[in-house]
Structure formats: structure tokens, C-alpha cells
Amino acid sequence: MQHIFEEHESEVRGYCRSFPAVFASAKGAWMTDTEGRRYLDFFCGAGVLNYGHNPDRLKQALMAYLMRDGITHTLDMYSEAKGQFIERFQQLVLQPRGLSYKLQFPGPTGTNAVEAALKLARKVTGREQVVSFTNAFHGMSLGSLAVTGNSFKRAGAGVPLNHATFMPFDGYMGSDTDTLDYFESVLADNGSGTQHPAAVILETVQAEGGVNVASADWLRRLREITQRHGIVLIVDDIQVGCGRTGGFFSFEEASIVPDIVTLSKSLSGYGLPLALVLIKPELDQWTPGEHNGTFRGHCPAFVTATAALEYWRDTQLQEAVASKATLVQTRLQRMLQQHGIKGTVRGRGLIQGVEFADAGLAQRVSKACFEAGLVIETAGINDQVLKLLPSLTIREGELAQGLDIIDQGLQQALDDGLRRAA
Amino acid sequence: MQHIFEEHESEVRGYCRSFPAVFASAKGAWMTDTEGRRYLDFFCGAGVLNYGHNPDRLKQALMAYLMRDGITHTLDMYSEAKGQFIERFQQLVLQPRGLSYKLQFPGPTGTNAVEAALKLARKVTGREQVVSFTNAFHGMSLGSLAVTGNSFKRAGAGVPLNHATFMPFDGYMGSDTDTLDYFESVLADNGSGTQHPAAVILETVQAEGGVNVASADWLRRLREITQRHGIVLIVDDIQVGCGRTGGFFSFEEASIVPDIVTLSKSLSGYGLPLALVLIKPELDQWTPGEHNGTFRGHCPAFVTATAALEYWRDTQLQEAVASKATLVQTRLQRMLQQHGIKGTVRGRGLIQGVEFADAGLAQRVSKACFEAGLVIETAGINDQVLKLLPSLTIREGELAQGLDIIDQGLQQALDDGLRRAA
Amino acid sequence: MQHIFEEHESEVRGYCRSFPAVFASAKGAWMTDTEGRRYLDFFCGAGVLNYGHNPDRLKQALMAYLMRDGITHTLDMYSEAKGQFIERFQQLVLQPRGLSYKLQFPGPTGTNAVEAALKLARKVTGREQVVSFTNAFHGMSLGSLAVTGNSFKRAGAGVPLNHATFMPFDGYMGSDTDTLDYFESVLADNGSGTQHPAAVILETVQAEGGVNVASADWLRRLREITQRHGIVLIVDDIQVGCGRTGGFFSFEEASIVPDIVTLSKSLSGYGLPLALVLIKPELDQWTPGEHNGTFRGHCPAFVTATAALEYWRDTQLQEAVASKATLVQTRLQRMLQQHGIKGTVRGRGLIQGVEFADAGLAQRVSKACFEAGLVIETAGINDQVLKLLPSLTIREGELAQGLDIIDQGLQQALDDGLRRAA
Amino acid sequence: MQHIFEEHESEVRGYCRSFPAVFASAKGAWMTDTEGRRYLDFFCGAGVLNYGHNPDRLKQALMAYLMRDGITHTLDMYSEAKGQFIERFQQLVLQPRGLSYKLQFPGPTGTNAVEAALKLARKVTGREQVVSFTNAFHGMSLGSLAVTGNSFKRAGAGVPLNHATFMPFDGYMGSDTDTLDYFESVLADNGSGTQHPAAVILETVQAEGGVNVASADWLRRLREITQRHGIVLIVDDIQVGCGRTGGFFSFEEASIVPDIVTLSKSLSGYGLPLALVLIKPELDQWTPGEHNGTFRGHCPAFVTATAALEYWRDTQLQEAVASKATLVQTRLQRMLQQHGIKGTVRGRGLIQGVEFADAGLAQRVSKACFEAGLVIETAGINDQVLKLLPSLTIREGELAQGLDIIDQGLQQALDDGLRRAA
Q1: Which positions carry the signal peptide feature in this UniProt record (chains A, B, C, D) (predicted)?
Q2: A51: which chain B residues are within 8 Å (Cβ-Cβ)?
Q3: Percent of chain B with pLDDT over 90
Q4: pLDDT at D422
Q5: Contact A236, A262 (CB under 8 A)
């Protein structure tokens, strides 16, 4: 079937080149291709499948809804499915965490949520500039791309990307320098050339950017600085929210409360497109219809999203993530030692990465793993980081199995490297 | 249940203010709210539901796919569901029309498709400016918003929107002036101040802009001018493609072949988010991953989209649209006469509008209709146009019923107007 | 001496390529090169020398000032020389015309005056967009270049030029269409995509753009439209002010009062750099130092500018311009007839142009004239217009002499053309 | 006479508010107002009068030129006066320093020179972004303003200023951090969000920015980085060139060769507007007329500029600057000690500044000095620096006299401060 894609699909297609199988079905941590071959999934659709593929609780809710001809598409009119989601989100997510946010459902993609967040921050402050960080990734439409660091993606715009200023992310200037010192100087200095910003936008763990983790202290200081200077703090939790780092929100651990939060990817829990912008009530200064879009009321996604919230009834999932995270980190550290490879293991919860000193190694490992039946991606501007993104609900045995494959893949990539060098 | 939305949903919500019901289920041309009240739908989710709500053929295909745990989310990896859609789209849409396009699946919203199209046109030509038309509507993310005419939406950007030049749409300078004369002068004159554009983007029928119809002659001349000047012609068929004007594409009637076409809304046929960019093979100069997004491979939407293509096996649907269009136009004309109201009826296929000389009338009619159980929207920069967008598969009896409600709504709005004036 | 320039001066040098002599001295209407050859001047340094080269009255004032060590440079501190200029400008220019303007002296170039005017208009209105016209020329720094039509000059920016919208100048759409109809539609339509502008900037006669003359009616309507819509009207009188069209200001004839006027070129009367922005008092909302520059207080230029104002004590100069203008126009018309050439004569006062149907002819005539001892330039985006810009104080005999040279140059250019064709 | 200015001159006027006298004549280091009061000049028109007011050698050359009706204005046609300047500039400035540059004469202001330099750097590299430094000052037209740090001036633009990235100047992050480390990281990292720049532009001593001095080591490293990354290095020597720091160019001491150099202010030596862009021959890729302007050939300025070059026949001036600089620095240091004030003295050659810990002190000193007959300005974003900019040719006695006045002014400002506090 691959010839169909090669003949008719645009050259822009990407992941299919790294993982050249035609997938047909999937369940839990496993994907199956049209030839019946099974793959363990350590990628989870770039963080969309935190609860695994086609989880039964969600599937049942979705099928029941479709069966009874629940309304599917309502733009942003009221629907029963949306009402139920909002209600449960209040009960299971916001209230227990003492958070008070208004909910905006923009177009059902992460980039649309970011566009909405940036618009609102600009409107509320009357300012234009937005501060983003080195190696940030926020999306591909022009507003989001302007705050994304990757120069290859930026060049794709075909027009200059303005109204964004990049500051060094935590750790960018070495471990001795708190990069927020520079940010504070620039803010305090009317001659710095940097316009007072409307907002700061960041991922607490930069996923695409190379699994770069902001420390809790750094996040707290950033919250304090932005508060003091009247700058809207936007946490883009699209990839590392919905439990990826342990808590529902990735910023919980630092005990900060952002002004705006963007969510998408794992929000529907079933791979159905859905996005959400959380807005502090006092910032909800939208005029009706000021930001719109067609698919703001995609009810099947609300149905599965509501079912997925049941994972947050108790702390079981969060605890499981913590214990699996330890397992992953320990094992990765050991691999580096055993194979005598220079590298760094970093991450939070079930987003973990290994940055290899040998820049090409991560890609060779990813390739070897795929051949051995494990889907695992690389990250970082030079694909120098092997990124582990298993589902949060993966069984410990499956997790160990995947780590074994990585271990072997690493050995194979090293052997290949030696062979090639010889 | 409305209080949930009023308390917790952002002020940005819009359509729910015009149609304040909480919808629960829907079938064919009918929507039902939580109180069991039924509404005839002449709005179709802004053109998303060309085949009506929850059409059975699509529903069956979707439920079967979910039941067997067909893979849901694959980013842009290959999937069986995508392969089948591509194949059928070739067979039933492109080949019969002699069209040769590569397919790009961007993020599943119209604005994302437009962003992709603009990026590609800029890349291929190495130019930045894009020509758009007065009262155009192409989306809300910054790239698409820059080519959208509505000043309220534009102001929402919070930053200047550049690299777009607006030209007068067909008819904008009165019936005596061919607006393309001006466009040609500007293109030919190196002193005009207007940069040679990468692309021209347009809707053949401007829906949001007020049901403004470009004539076939004008479209042909525009195609000829853009070809001669090496400008990429992008037809944004998001709202009026997928059969809305009769043919699958709205530009078929003018016998032109755009360089790029964007589709979304009714593409999945079931209200599931999906978008598609059609690209002439020689323009498919994307580098892998140059434009990406999470939800490029949302398989349930491919499944329903494939099932929806079966409507295009023969010309039955196209013929039905033509005959219903005549019915609608005739009836609307008659209403104007009978009520002695000044106004213009215009449209193509099953997008029809009445622009009233009395600017507030359309909104009063819409309100009266909703109270009588008909969902119908207004359009145009001052909401001066009543826009009819029934499903293509609506029964003739239902269509007549809806037109009756409009007729009464018109009477009521006029009576109210008189009462208020008195 | 030419080798010095060819070796050491940048390739950007331009006019020296059309008029390759090394000039040493000049007086009245005549320039003399280092070889002693004399040239009659119908170009006047692009409108800088309205009163001829080194006019004695100004020369004496200047030398006396230098002799007594009058202060030369004061930034924008107060100086006696500036005070005297301001006083006389009030008495001889503003008061007699019933005009009330505040005076701003920006950096001493036209482009700096335009930059200041645009900044102020944007500040006062809080809007960003500025409307300019096809074939406008306002300067080379980025702000001025953005409102300049010439695409070759614009490309020189190396960055996109934004916040400017071009409208068709008077006559651009043929003699049947009032181009302001289109401008008014766009202003009235919130869906036009054209942001409500801060200002409209224009030359009443476009000099570089090809001697395009706006009619008095068109100017009056433009003044009325801008007033009604709260748009700042800026007349750029840098090239055609200071008497070039007859009155001191080019807009006097249309009896309009712009909100802001820019002057430079002939303002000092002696070729010394000086620029002036006239601002309606209610628009003078500058904060001290908000726009600055080093050479705002160049006293020698104030001294000659004050002396030059004496030309405006009575109406003698204005009358002389009118009678010379008639002479020039009559003669040019006759030449076209006698040589049987298709072309248009147009202009106001002593800026007159001939647009030839044969696009290359103007340049050939200019070249032939220079060889015969007359300096005369071309204009228009394709250099298709021969532009006559003699000094206002030229003697009638000299004027006739120059016209004779043009007559012969025309004959020669036609003969050359025929020879080349044969 | 002050009422004339107050009534008729725009509110934008600035320096006249700090130094409210009406100046009439000037000679050497002294200015005289209309009341006959004399002022010692430690400001020199912001660096325009390096050779003092109306120096006799230049005056004589200028008067002789005017007397014999030397041509004044030639646009960029060849003139004898320009030819002579170019020749002497080669002989006395470029050749002795082993420098090879092409000369471009843009419009006669610093901002115009900067606009030309930026355009050329963008053209040559095909890139758009320009790196500038915190507290940089390069001019007021939109291109130059975009690379200027001062937020008040930037806000004056009324439009966003783009295509500029600010980096920390030498010393900005404290004495322990080499700010070029950050710049290098950003350049090396394709995910940094900072586009690879066309150029870096800087002043080696930031004058307006607060007399911030870049060290020779830092400059050398910057030259090395820009060379390695193919970035055009532009030194803006408008304020600190022409001998201000000792050598003719301020970058001589660091033994670096910039790709482009801008000069203006003291270039004509007599306060006549003139500007010059020096371009490495291989970068002189201008197309004829690509950047133009009216006053590119202002011959009186060429005449005085040529006469001024005689100061550079030998090293006398440079040596005098060095010894006067020592005198100034020693004396300023002593003042701080004697008055027991916290502050820093910094500068190079005859641009010296004192940054006081008490932010308002510099302005109070400047005011007290003016009352005592000394013109001296403040600098820095909060006017926290007292800036000494005496002429290079000032007599040692005059220099001492001025320093005495500062000493007393300091005492008075301190006394006033105490009184106010009491």
C-alpha cells in the first residue's frame, strides 16, 4: 500500500519516513501494521496517547454516543457533551488543585490554542512582543511559529516572524548562570532594545527541543518576575500536560499558577483532535467571536475527554508514573555506564531523554529499535536526543521490554558505528 | 445546563448566543436539544454537514472501525485508513475531473490548510506578498487572518498583519467595472507600490463575507492573469467545496484549475476535523516535516471521509443540488416581492443569501426563525445578509418547511420593526 | 579627475553616469565643469535650486554670517539665525496665506521630514497604516521607502516594507474613473481588509513618478474624505513646494489646507541641506526629543533660507512662473506636433514633462541634450518621461535656448532611432 | 527672542530646554548668546565640533569656495570639491592605516548612513536580521531606530520595529561574564530562535547609551566571531570617530577592520551636514541609484571636510587627545573622592563620563554647570551619566576651567540635594 502514499501524498510527510510501516490497528501500548507485525509504542503519537491506544473505557463511551446519534458538530453552540466535560473538568481537575480558570475551546489543534493564548495576552496588555525561549516549540501557524526556535521550521514561514524575543531557557548558559538574571536586566533597562512583553510562553519540559527540563526554582522565579512586571505567563502544556510529568499539569510540582494554560494532544484521550485554553477569569476579556474556528465543538472528543478524566479521580495514575519514571531513569543511566557511552539522562515523569555526546547516535538507535519492533523518536535541534514517551498506562513488563530493545538497539548502533569506522 | 457554560466557558463563545439551546442529538436535517425540542438546520455547522447530521453510511463505517480497534492516531505515519481515502479520492474525485494533485494533510482545521498553502506558495515563488480580496475569510491564525478582510477579526491579532494586499472582489466597484482591470494595472506597473505577489487566494463564493459570488468569466480571467504573471492561484474551497455549489469543487463550473486547493469542513462528512491541501505536483516542493502538526493522521475522519466519497460515484447529488437551488432562489425572490422588501438574492447551489436594504432585518429574521425552530445564520460585515446553508441531502419537503419558516420569520420581523417604529 | 570617482566611490553613484562631467562652479542657470564647458541647467539638482545656482542675495547673507563667526551648529538649541527664519517664515509665508502651523526642523533631508511626519500622524491617531499612491516617491530610509512606489527602490530595503497601503493616484484608472471612489469604498467597508489609516501622504504633482498631476478637484475631494474619516493629510511638498508650481505651496491652487506639510530641497535656496515639517497646532503632540537628529540646527542654511524668503515679498516670482510655464507647455506641444510624435505634455508651473509613447525616447533625448550642453532628466518608472525643471528665476532667453536644445535633441534622437532601425 | 520659538516651534524641541539661551556666535571652545554671555562648550554639538567652533583653516577654505561661486549642489554628480575630498581622504586617512574602502555619500545625516549600511549588509548577505546591542543609538528613521535600544525613542515609531535582535553589550552581564559567550551560543544553535544575522552593528563607545566602552579584547573577539559566521561587521563611528577617542577611527586601537564604517557629525569639521559610508570593496554590490537622496553632493561640506583632514597629517592631534584624556580622567576620579560620591568614571580619549550612583545627580550637575557658563550634557537611559565631550583642540587651560566648573557644579548639586532632603 506504500506506493499510494509515495505517488499521491505530498513530500512534506515526515514520520512515515522514520517508521515506514502501514498501521492498521492498535491497542494499549501496541500498534499493528497491515502485515500483522506488532510494535511496542514508546512515542505515543508525540504525546497524544497518554492513556494508550483505544482505551476501553473511552471506546465504550464514544461508541455509545455515536450509536444514539449524539450530536457531532455544533461549532461553539452549547452541547450536552461539552457541558458534561466542563462540569467534570471542574470537579476532577480544577477544583482539587484550587485553580480557577475560564475554558476556551479554540480550533482542535495545539497551534490554534497557542494562537488564541497569544492573541488574548496581547489584547489584555495592549502590548505586542512575546518572550519565548531557546529551543521552544509551539506550533506551525504563523503566530505560534514566531515563538518557536527551530530555524528550519521558521524558514518555512516564507515571511519574517516578528513580535517575538527569545531568552535563554533554564540551563542554556551553563549550570553556573541563572538565565533569568539576563531576562531581569533586560526588563529593568529601558535601553535594552527589548520591548516590554505582553507575555512569556514556555513549556516546562521542552519536548521537541530536546527534553530540556526547567527546574522548579527557575519556574517559581519566572512566575515571580512576570507577576512583578505585569507580564502574562502562558504555560504551553500541550505535550507535557495531561499527566505526562506525573501531575495533571506539568507546573503543579513547582506550585505556580500560570495566567493562561494551553492543552491539546492527550486531552481527548483517544487521539481525537481537541484543544483547550485555560484563562484566569480576570483575563477573559474576549469579545464574542473575536477568535473563532469551525471545529470548536467536536462532541465525540468531548465524550472521550470526559471519560478520560476518570483517570484523575484518585492519585493512582500519578503514583504509577512516578514509579515508572524511576525505573526508566535508572535503566537508562545503567545503559550509559554499561556501554561506556558519554551522555546525559534527563526528564520528568514519563518524558525522558538521553542526549548522546555522539550526535548521530540517537537516530541510529531509533532506527535499530524500529527494526526490532519499538517505535521511539529523537528530539533536539540535531536529533541528538533519544526521547522516551511511553503511555502512562503501560504495563511494567512492557516498559521493561521496550527498555531491553533500546539496550540492544544501542549495542547495535555502536557496533554499526564501529563497523563503519573500520 | 446553560449555567455551566455561562459560569465556566470563556466570553469568546459566539454562536451559542444566537442559538441558545443545549443540543443533544441530531439526524439528517434535524437537531434536538436536551429538552427534546427539534430544530430544522439551515446552517449545517457553517458548511460542515453537507451530507446532514450523522448520515448512516458514514456512521456504520466509523463504528465498525472503532469496534475493531482500527488505529486512531498516527501523526503522519502511514495508516490503512489514510491509504484507502487517498485511493478513493483519486478514483472518485480527481481522475474523473482530469485533475492531478498531490495531497497534503495538515492540522485538521481550515486555517491550518490555508497556512500550509500560503507557506508553500511563498516557498515556491520566493516572494512574500499574497493578494486576497475585499471581504475574504480564510481563518483565525495569524497567517490566515492576514488575508481575511474583517477588521474586527483582524484587530484581534494584537499585532500588525502584513504581507497581504487586498484587491476588490468581483462586483466591488459596481457592475460596470471589471475589478481585475485594476489588478492588472497594478501588476504591470513597477511603480505601483504593490509587490509582485506569491499567490492570489480566494473563495469563489465568499460565504462569511456576505454570499458574494464571483462570476465564471471573472474567475477565468483571474486564472489567466495569475498564470501569465507566474502567481500561484489558491482556491479556498473550505466552505463552498465538497458539493456545496453543485460540483465537488466550486471552481468546476468555471473550468479553471487552481494551483492549490484547500478543503476542510465537509471533507470528513461527519463533523470530524479533517483538512486537505491539494497541490499541483510541480509545486510540491516541501521538505519533509517543513510544515507539521499533531493531528495529521486522525483515522476516524479518514474512515468517514472515504465513506462520504461514495456520494460522488454518480451525478445524483449534483443534480439534486441544482434543482433544490432553483427552488430556494425562486422562493426567496417571491418572498421579497410578496413582502415588498428591497433586497438581493444571490448564491450558487445550496449557498444562497438575501441581502436586505434594511441592514438590521437579516438578524431579526434569524432570531424569529430560531424561535420557530429553524437554525439559520446571517453573513456579511454588518450581518446584513441572511445566509441559507441547508444540507445537500435535505428532503424537498424539509426544504419547503424551512422556507416557510423564513417567510413567516420575515413577516414577524417586519411587524416587529413596525411596532418598534410606532 | 573622473578616475578618482571610478576607483574610490561606491557603485551606487547614479546621476554622474547620465551627466559625466566634473562640475566646478555654477551661477544662475549655468553650471561649469573643470574643463570650462558650460551647461544650461534644466534639472536644478532635482528641484533644489529653484532660485538658480548661488544667487547673490543669499550668497551675501551667507558670507556675512560666516565672516562674523555666526554660530554654525547648535543641534536644536535656540539660535539667532533660526529665530529670524521662523519669524520671516511666519510673516512672508504663513500669515499671508492664513495658515497656522507649528514648525519642526528634523534632520536636514526630505526623507527625515517624511519620517517625522509619519511618526507624528501615527502617534496622534494611534493607528499604524498609511495610505500612499501609485508611483509615489517619498524617500529612501525605511519609513519613507515604505510609502514609495518604485519596486526597484523598495527591493533595496532588504526587508519587507509594511504599514503602507497603495491607492490609485488621480488618473490611474483612466479618465472615466475617479480613483477616490475606490478609496471611499474601502474606507467605508469594515470587511475591506484595509486598516483604517493614520494618514494619507501624497505629492500634488508626482515628480519622480513621471510628472503626474493631481487635479484641484481630486485634491479637494481627498481633503474632504480625510477630514470626514479623521485621517491626517500629509502633503509632501519637498520637490514641488517653494514655488515650483507657482505658489509657495503646491496645494494653494486647490485651496486646501493639509494637516502636515513637508518641505526641503529648495528651502535653504542655496543647496544647503535643510528640512521643515509644518504641523497643525492641535497635532503638535510630540514629547520633547521624541524625534531628534544631529543637524537640526544648521545655521548657515537658516541664513540663506531667510534671505530666500524675500522672493515671496510680492507676487512677481509667482507671475513669472506662470508665464514661463505657458511658454514651456506651448513649445513642448508644438514640438510633438512638428516632429509628429505621440506623447503627452503635462505639469504645473515649472515642472513639466513629456511622456512619449516610445518608451526609450526620453532617455535618448536627455543624452542628446547633455551633449549639446543642457542638463535635463527623465522620470517615470520606465524613464519614459522627459522632465523639465528649470530654475524659477531663469531668464526667458535662457529658457528659449534650452527649449531649442530639446527640440534639436528630439530630432537627433529620432534620427538615431531611425538609423538604428535601418 | 525665546518667545518666537515657544510660540512657533514644535514641542519636539529638546536641547533648548536644558540650555535655554539663544546662541549667536561661536569660536573655538566658546559659544556666545544674543545677550553677549559666553559659554565654554563641553558638548560640541553632540560630537559634531571635534575641531571646535568655526576653525579658521576651514573657514578660510569655505569662504574662498563660496566667493568664487564654486558649485554648491550636484546631487551625486561629480564635482571638483568631492574629488578633492576623496583624494585627500585616501592619502591622509585610509592609506596610512592600510585600509581599503569604497566611499558612499548618502544623505548628509548619520541616520541616513546607517540606513545605507544596513541595506547593503542585507543585500550582500540575503539575510534580514541585524544584531545590535543593549543601549545602542543609531538614529531616528525607521531602519536605524530598529537597532536603537532606547524604548522612548522606539515607541515614537508608531509601528513595530522588526528585523533587529539585541545582544548584551560588553559588561552588561557583570564583569565576570563575557557577553559574547551568549552571542556565540545563539549563533551556533539552530534552535535558538534567533535568525542568522546579516550584520552586527555597534558603537565601540556607546555615547548616548551612557559612555559604555567596549574593550579591545571584546572587539577583537566580536570581529573574529562575525568573520567566522559570515556576518557583516558595521562600526557606527558617527559620534566617536574623527578623532574623538584618539585615532581617526575608534576601532584602530583594537586593530580590527570592520566591513562597513559609518561617519558623519565631525566629518565636515564645520558643522555642515555630511555623511559617509565606508565599504569593503568586495561588499560594494550596490546597483546604481539603489539608495539615493538629494543632498549627497553638498560641496561646501566637502570643502571644509578636506581642510579638516589636514589635522591628520601628523600625530599631533592624537597625542594631544591622549594627554587631555588623562587630565580629564584623573580630575574626575579625584572629584569623586574629594566629594565622597559613589560613581564610575569611564571613557576613551575625549569622550568621558561619570556614572553616579545617585541617578538624578548628573542632571543637577549639568544644570548647575550651565548656570556657571559651561555646556555639558547627560547620557544613559536615565540620564544618570555626566558626559564630557570637549573639542579635541581645546586649550589645556580651557579644559581645566571647565573641569573647575564641573567641580563646583558637583558641590552645588550636592548642597541642593542636602537642602532638599532637609
Answers
A1: none
A2: none
A3: 97
A4: 74
A5: yes
Residues 148-167, chain B, touching D (beta carbon < 8 A):
159-160
Report pLDDT for D297: 74
Locate the chain B residue with the closest alpha carbon to C135: B191
Q: Provide DSSP, C202-222.
A: E-SEETTTTSEE--HHHHHHH
Question: Which sign, positive or negative, has the C-alpha torsion B79, B85, B91, B94?
Answer: negative
> What pLDDT, on a 0 to 100 scale, did the predictor assign at position A297?
74
DSSP C339: H
Pairing type for strands A351-356 and A385-388 reads: antiparallel
Contact B191 C149 (CB under 8 A): yes
- Residues of chain B numbered 261-280 and touching chain A (CB < 8 Å): 264-265, 270-273, 277, 279
| Amino acid residing at A53 | H
Candidates C321, C375, C268; CA nearest to C39 is C375
What is the pLDDT at residue A421? 76
Question: How many CA within 13 A on the CB side of residue B418?
Answer: 6
C-alpha cell read off for D214: 567596549
Cell, residue A11: 513530500
Q: Which of B209, B222, B142 is nearest to C192 (CA)?
A: B209
Regions of chain D with pLDDT less than 70 = none
Q: CA dist B177 to B168, B180, B188, B213, B380, Å?
A: 10, 9, 18, 15, 22
CA distance A368 to A196: 48
Query: CB contact, 8 Å: C90 with chain D?
Result: yes
- Listed as ranges, residues in chain A with pLDDT below 70 are none
CA distance A141 to D161: 22
The residue among A198, A186, A102 whose CA lies nearest residue A146 is A198
Which one of D189, D202, D203, D206 would you mutate to disrupt binding with A, by most A Cβ within 10 Å of its Cβ? D189
pLDDT per residue as tens digits for the range A152-211: 999 999 999 999 999 999 999 998 899 999 999 999 999 999 999 999 999 999 999 999
D132, D191, D380: residue with CB nearest A381: D191
Contact assessment for residue A31 and residue A23, using Cβ atoms and an 8 Å cutoff:
yes
Tens-digit pLDDT profile for residues B407-417: 999 999 999 88
Ramachandran angles phi, psi of A356, nearest 5°: -90, 145
Q: Say what the ipTM of the complex is.
A: 0.97
| Nearest beta carbon to residue D109 from set C10, C20, C293 | C293
In whole angstroms, give the CA distance from residue B216 to residue B199: 20
Contact between residue A238 and residue A169 where contact means Cβ atoms under 8 Å apart: no
Q: What is the mean pLDDT of residues C312-325?
A: 97
What does residue B128 show for φ and ψ, rounded to 5 degrees?
-110, -35
Question: Please, which residues have CB within 8 angstroms of residue D391's CB and are 6 or more apart in sequence?
Answer: D28, D29, D41, D44, D49, D50, D51, D52, D53, D350
Span B168-180, pLDDT tens digits: 999 999 988 999 9
C-alpha cell at B421: 417604529
* B24: Cα within 13 Å, side-chain hemisphere: 10
C-alpha cell at A293: 474556528
**Which pLDDT tens digit goes with each residue over B235-259?**
999 999 999 999 999 999 999 999 9
Residue D93 neighbours by CB under 8 Å, 6+ apart: D99, D248, D309, D312
Residues in chain C: 422
Q: Quickly tell me which residue has 562597513 as its cell.
A: D260
CB pairs under 8 A between B and D: 3
State how far the Cα of B213 lies from the Cα of A326, in Å rounded to an integer: 62
Side chain identity, residue D372: A
What pairing do the DSSP bridges indicate for beta strands C377-379 and C385-388? Answer: antiparallel
> Distance between CA D111 and CA D97 in Å, rounded?
26
Domains, chain C, ordered by start = 2-55+315-421 (3.90.1150.10), 58-312 (3.40.640.10)
Q: What is the pLDDT of residue D14?
A: 95
